[in-house]
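FIELD: query
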Amino acid sequence: MEDLDESDLDPDPFGQFARWFAEAQASGNLQPDALALATATPEGRPSLRLVLLKEFDARGFVFYTNYGSQKGRELEANPLAAAALYWPELHRQVRISGRAQRLPREESERYFRTRPRDAQISALASRQSRPIESREALERQFERTATRHAGTDVPLPEEWGGLRLSPDTFEFWQGQPSRLHDRFRYVRQTAETWRIERLQP
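FIELD: result
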């Protein structure tokens, strides 16, 4: 494994992330965009799941969901969240924490139109995270929705769209066989500047 030194780092964590993400995409990883997203209730009970990172820029990291899902409801009540990506081929992980907020509806609409039609129908048919009695009932819901919108565009569901996690901290972790891993944390100082510090493994 290669060592990681502060001189190797981009002063902008988004630039550093873009570099590592491109290397993860080239590494043969089957799902480099798998993002482990942690949310919590206002009382502090955490939950964790994998979502797909759909885009990122200097404003943050975007994923899509039903706003009525567990994560959607938790982020509505408590917008603080954390996320991590792990790329075993490179022995690297990135951790992010910050605040999540909904995307404007027009941005969600634009992305929704790029999804395969069956994925659009699924988003409209499913009440994500709610109980249902059987797989057959779920498939009937899907078929009813598909029939209702046959020959027309599938409308963007009212409770479905994007969320952007805007970080105030990043951590870049480069594993080492000795377990003396290289860890660097970026902490936001201003809208444009970040403090970088090395952490002990």
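FIELD: remark
Residues 6-113+161-199 form a domain with the Pnp Oxidase; Chain A fold (CATH 2.30.110.10).
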